[in-house]
Design goal:
With 297 residues, the chain is mainly alpha-helical. The protein contains 6 helices and 4 strands, in the order αααββββααα. α1 packs antiparallel against α6, α2 packs antiparallel against α3 and α4 packs antiparallel against α5.
Length: 297
Amino acid sequence: MGDITLSTATRTNLLSLQRTTSLIGRTQERLATGLKVNSAIDDALSFFKARNLNSRAADLQNIKDGITDGINVIRASIQGLEGMEAVLKQMKALAQSAISAPESSTRGKLASQFNELRSQVDNLAEDSSFNGINLLKNSTSAFEAGADTLTVKFNERTERVSINQLIISGISATDFNTMVGISAVATGTPGDSTVWGQTGTAAVRAINAAIRAIDSALITVRQSAQALGTNSALLEIRRSFTEDIVNTLKGGASDLVNADLNEESANLLSLQTRQQLGTISLSIAQQSEQAILRLFG
């Protein structure tokens, strides 16, 4: 049996129907995915440009998460410094009470309380960590060089000259030497310059030295908190900026590949109408061939 030969009118209508069906399928895909460019086949230029924009947006999103972590590290440090400031004020009040107390036994008790508060300063610093980073105290649990350094990146570049970042150093050992010195407060050892539990000028001199050390430590704590607060404010600005950039990149990518759902809905309705008309047209084109059948009726 030979091939079936269609008339020109029938073939033309069939081709039109096939194209309409193809367009309906494409429009339905756009409506289902919300994208007018689903692959490089649809529009290679827009597809790859959108992918690059989305890739950079993802990189910057990670950068923004890192900035947020940095802000939390600084907040933990500032909270620790605020706690230390409160304890230092209590220590100063105890020292002032010790000066006005004439009995050695009273001074001895105050010195014991003073030492306890001093240990809490260490504990506050040790607990002021976030995600394993502590800007106040290093892993050796001492106020010494080596406190963790916080590096916060601001861009996704890897070339050395293009990297934009902020390096925040922890509190240095020198800054806290004063507080370390006043931790050695003792009681009951005659002749020791740090002895409080005595009467006389030696004890008063030792207590006044402790007060001066606390004043110095308070200045250090406040200055450190101020410096960290400034860095935190900068990180907040960079986080907001990065968030805006991420939104801009995602918006640009969406503009390239997203479908206009209203337009696609109208297109689908038009194509379905065209499909119905094409079917009718095909039927009309075949009527002349069907007329031959009547000759055999």
